[in-house]
Write a structure and sequence with these properties.
CATH superfamily of the largest domain in chain B: Alpha-helical ferredoxin
CATH class of the largest domain in chain B: Mainly Alpha
Distance between the termini of chain B: 62 Å
Oligomer: heterodimer
Distance between the termini of chain A: 52 Å
Strand content of chain B: 15-25%
Structural class of chain B: alpha+beta
Radius of gyration of chain A: 22 Å
Helix content of chain B: 25-40%
Strand content of chain A: 15-25%
Order of helices and strands of chain B: EEHEEEEEHHHHHHH
Helix content of chain A: 25-40%
């Protein structure tokens, strides 16, 4: 890496945006290949939200019962409601075992079987105990281990930097511009290859399991650059969010045997998924919960039901699920050994994201034309591995496996390609964003606009959707985007200006939320996490296809010509659990 | 949920304006079930956008929001205000330079982590599958892997305050985590690093780190085991 401090200019082979599992795994791969890799992250790497993942990482190790790659593949396809591209799923399951063993060799403290092998637990939608886990802090230990490996292999870190613009010209990525949060000021990162691994965007919703940082910045930047997002209507609502807080209580609780019960004390999943019960996939369980709540069978008629761990006993709860126990105790004063825990569906995971091919290369159209040197992996990407609904524990595996693949592809690309010229005025767009917020004499506050967005997205774009609600949301977003033009910030300082960062993030939230709404309005069927009460059936004849969305001249343009890759042996069937 | 009127005294420092930190008091009304982070958000979003602090996951796992509240190091996100009553006094972690308001310079903290070689060191060949590690062997390090690097321990450690070069409890706990990992072959290397005037012997078993740890890790106990290991190794 070469740095010109006077100009805040950095020249480096590969720049990786995001320090979660996908970003760090890619950076490690690039650094191990002998090239220079820099990770740009708006938080310290160990603060990334991959660390929030609790229950496990999927791989058919067959350590505790029979399992196979074919079974993992079929479960993932069925879980996706047949929208996943099956060539991607095939690649994913083929790499999954290697990914887990690599982690173990790096030192990840996986929970063990009695004979010392990696332990595995059941998870929703998986037909065998496939979740390799470390208690209920799996994401945390994977993230820390990867960060430590990156330190060992001399990855460069730019911690607390916010990316403001991508430098792309003539379908060729040249680098990016980022704001130094700690000191203020714009930096140019001139790179042969750029990876966007910016994670999820649950912060568009009021009730969410996501971190404050999950504002979809990479997704927003891609839209701004005129590139497409894919399948954005598919937002997963996790059935066991801590009531009122939305904080994740891992599916591992149900994997270990916890029940979900309504006001009558019934395990109501028997009505909705008699075979799998609480271990049906998340879209199914969340809909069941919301149906119970809407039918007045929430606890005391209110908007929550119970997650009941009591029969698991104190020993198992404290050994296997200590984080869940602490969260319930700290946030709701509920002792999960003795009392059931209030839960509600919470916006959790974004199946959609930046459109990319099986090599993690970002594409610009339905034909798959590549933007050279630009890559995406993890939750910010849509390859599409998860289709219309992701299975639990497939996300950590996705981030790590496709992070590694991205690193390999970037290294190969860097070896074959030099540095492309930067645009004539590389700082222009980023500077304009800052100036807009600092110079405006506006009256609008970003916090108020964000609150209006989140409250309405949760109310109108949730587990059950319909045309009227979505049209309302469409109007709300239009109004909020107009208000954003008049937004101003209190803080005009250079150093650690949180006010400025939050206002910048809001622009991204508003931008991709519009795509969620437009894509959801257009898809007149129910599939996976996208359920419309006005079109309650899946419609393969019309809608077995991906949604691509661009922002062109301020308007969202949609295209449905990108076909789903389907193998003869995994034809769409009715999805029952 | 009922509303509670509270008085929040925050140590402010705006480096571009202030010569030194000063207290600022905010009188606000919040839900009585609020956490410290909810209070900071309320102030930042509704009253004073210039307030700076770190936060992300708000579920006790990312380690961003360690700070001092009424004299105790806590994670703002998991700490309910009712633990402290209606008067809150919030300041940044001690022992670190303040960048702005509640945001401190953690670069030295992360640099110390690097010093102890925080990664598995292997002499043996890689197996085709996983290394065998018994549940009992895992138990040795299990709790130490809970560490979220929030720095609450190091900020509470009196041995760390006067000596900026002392590795401090978090880095030493990380050394413990690898030295006691049955798969690791790098103990000799790391024991040499911790057996130093700025290493394990600066720990005077004061227990402040343990009291401050939001993950309730028995840090002092592990550091004591590390001392024994250093002695055993030099015999």
């Amino acid at each position: 890496m070469k740095t010109d401090e006077a100009r805040n200019y950095h020249k480096i082979d590969a720049v990786i945006v995001g320090a979660g599992l996908a970003g760090l795994r890619a950076a490690l791969e690039v650094a191990k290949s002998g090239l220079s890799a820099a990770v740009i992250s708006k938080v310290y790497p160990t603060r990334s939200h991959s660390g929030g993942a609790q229950g496990g990482i999927a791989a058919a190790l067959a350590n505790v019962s029979e399992d196979s790659l074919e079974a993992h593949m079929f479960d993932t396809i069925k879980g996706s409601d047949y929208l996943a591209d099956q060539n991607i799923v095939e690649k994913f399951v083929n790499e999954a075992l290697k990914t887990v063993y690599e982690f173990e060799h790096m030192g990840v403290p996986f929970s063990r079987t009695a004979d010392g092998r990696i332990n595995q637990r059941p998870f929703g939608g998986h037909s065998a105990p496939r979740a390799c886990f470390a208690q209920d802090i799996t994401g945390h230990v994977l993230l820390h281990t990867l960060y430590e490996q990156c330190l060992k292999h001399n990855v460069f870190f730019f911690n607390e930097f916010q990316v403001l613009s991508l430098l792309i010209e003539n379908d060729l990525s040249r680098g990016l511009v980022a704001w130094d949060i700690r000191n203020g000021g714009l930096h140019i990162f001139h790179a042969r290859a750029v990876l966007l691994a910016t994670g999820g965007y649950g912060r568009a919703f009021k009730v969410t399991s996501n971190a404050h940082a999950n504002t979809g910045d990479g997704v927003g930047l891609v839209l701004e650059a005129g590139l497409p997002l894919e399948d954005m209507e598919f937002v997963q609502f996790h059935p066991t969010g801590l009531y009122k807080h939305g904080i994740l209580l891992s599916e591992a609780a149900r994997g270990e045997g916890a029940y979900i019960i309504n006001d009558q004390g019934e395990r109501f999943m028997k009505t909705y998924a008699a075979a799998k019960m609480e271990l049906a996939p998340r879209d199914v369980v969340s809909r069941a919960e919301q149906t119970e709540i809407n039918g007045g069978r929430g606890i005391g008629g209110k908007d929550y039901v119970y997650l009941d761990l009591r029969h698991l006993g104190q020993k198992k709860i404290l050994e296997r699920l200590p984080q869940i126990y602490d969260l319930a105790l700290n946030y709701l004063k509920v002792d999960a050994v003795k009392e059931p825990v209030p839960i509600q569906p919470t916006a959790h995971y974004s199946m959609g994201g930046i459109a990319a091919n099986m090599n993690t290369e970002v594409i610009k159209d339905a034909r798959g034309t590549m933007v050279k040197g630009l890559y995406t992996a993890g939750e910010s990407s849509c390859l599409s591995l998860h289709g219309a609904n992701r299975l639990g524990t497939n996300s950590l595996q996705d981030a790590a496996t496709f992070g590694r693949i991205a690193g390999m592809r970037m290294s190969a690309f860097c070896r074959e390609n030099g540095y492309s010229d930067l645009p004539a005025s590389p700082l222009e767009k980023a500077q304009a964003k800052i100036d807009h917020l600092w110079q405006k004499e506006g009256q609008e506050k970003h916090a108020a606009i964000r609150e209006d967005l989140q409250v309405n997205m949760t109310k109108l774009m949730g587990v059950f959707r319909n045309q009227d609600d979505m049209l309302k949301m469409q109007a709300v977003i239009k109004e909020l985007q107009e208000r954003y033009q008049k937004v101003t910030v209190d803080d005009h300082g250079m150093v650690f200006n949180l006010d400025l960062i939050e206002a910048l993030e809001l622009e991204n939230l508003l931008s991709f939320s519009e795509v969620i709404v437009e894509s959801a309005l257009a898809r007149k069927e129910s599939r996976g996490a996208h359920f419309r009460t006005d079109f309650p059936k899946r419609d393969d004849a019309q809608w077995l296809k991906h949604t691509l969305a661009w922002r062109r001249n301020g308007k969202i343009v949609l295209d449905f010509s990108k076909e789903v890759v389907i193998y003869p042996q995994y034809q769409p069937q009715e999805r029952k659990y | 949920m009922a509303k509670a009127d509270i008085s929040v005294k925050i140590l402010r420092f705006q480096p571009e304006k202030d010569k030194k930190p000063h207290w600022q008091v905010y009188a606000i009304a919040v839900d009585d079930e609020s956490t410290i982070l909810d209070v900071l958000n309320e102030i930042h979003w509704q009253h004073d956008g210039t307030l700076a602090y770190r936060r992300s996951c708000r579920s006790s796992i990312c380690g961003s929001c360690a700070m001092k509240v009424n004299g105790r190091n806590v994670l703002a996100c998991e700490t309910p205000i009712h633990r402290f009553g209606s008067k809150l006094k919030i300041e940044p972690l001690s022992g670190f330079n303040i960048i702005k308001d509640l945001v401190v310079d953690l670069e030295p903290f992360f640099e110390k982590l690097k010093r102890i070689k925080p990664y598995l060191i292997l002499d043996k060949p890689l197996p085709d599958k996983e290394y065998v590690q018994s549940p009992e062997q895992l138990e040795q390090i299990g709790e130490s892997t809970l560490c979220i690097l929030c720095a609450a321990c190091s900020a509470a450690c009196p041995s760390s305050w006067p000596n900026q070069d002392y590795l401090g409890p978090a880095a030493l706990l990380k050394a413990y985590r690898f030295i006691f990992d049955s798969r690791d072959d790098g103990a000799d290397d790391r024991l040499e690093i911790v057996n130093d005037k700025n290493g394990i012997w600066r720990c005077h078993t004061i227990f402040n780190c343990m009291e401050a740890c939001p993950k309730k890790i028995k840090i002092t106990e592990y550091l004591s085991r590390l001392k024994v290991k250093v002695v055993e190794n030099s015999l």
